[in-house]
Amino acid sequence: MRVVVQRVKHSGCTVDSKLISSINKGFMLLIGFKNTDTLVELEKVLKKVSGLRIFEDENGKMNKSLKDVNGEILAISQFTLYADSKHGNRPSFTEAMEYKKANEYYDLFCDKLNQLGFVTKKGIFGADMKIDLINDGPVTIILDSDDL
User: Fold this and answer.
1) Do the Cβ atoms of 83 and 90 come closer than 8 Å?
2) Cβ-contact 32, 60 below 8 angstroms
3) pTM of structure
């Protein structure tokens, strides 16, 4: 499982020129699942995302968590995080989890974030989404369950 975490001042998701969801201060997450991922990987990444301390404290140090700053989450499904471009110019996505299972894992991951007390808004799984954001810092963290 891979998640790209971006600390944002604002982020929104638009589908067919209609705003689907938006947040203010918080995390914009791009979430991708590998075909071999299990609930073990999901839980590892969930724990890391929910505990990340990447907001500045009164001394300018990244020491505060999302909960500390009452931040929100915009979670966007992103199978292209498992693009393999080693051969040629057209990426392969054979490592990405199949559609139905990935959709279930995406919903579960978002539900678990909500259960932890985070306001979590979503895009539309599989849709052609347009994402806007104001990256704060910029701060971008890439999490891979294989490295946790």
Assistant:
1) no
2) no
3) 0.96
DSSP string, 107-125: HHHHHHHHHTT-EEEE--T
Give, in order, the Cα–Cα distances in Å from 33 to each of 10, 104, 147.
25, 11, 14
Per-residue pLDDT of 81-138, as tens digits, reads: 999 999 999 999 999 999 999 999 999 999 999 999 999 999 999 999 999 999 999 9
Positions marked catalytic? 78-80
Strand (E) or helix (H) holding 105? helix 99-115
| 2-147, CATH topology level | D-tyrosyl-trna(Tyr) Deacylase; Chain: A; (3.50.80)
State the Cα–Cα distance between residues 113 and 37, nearest whole angstrom: 18
Greatest CA span in the chain, whole angstroms?
A: 48
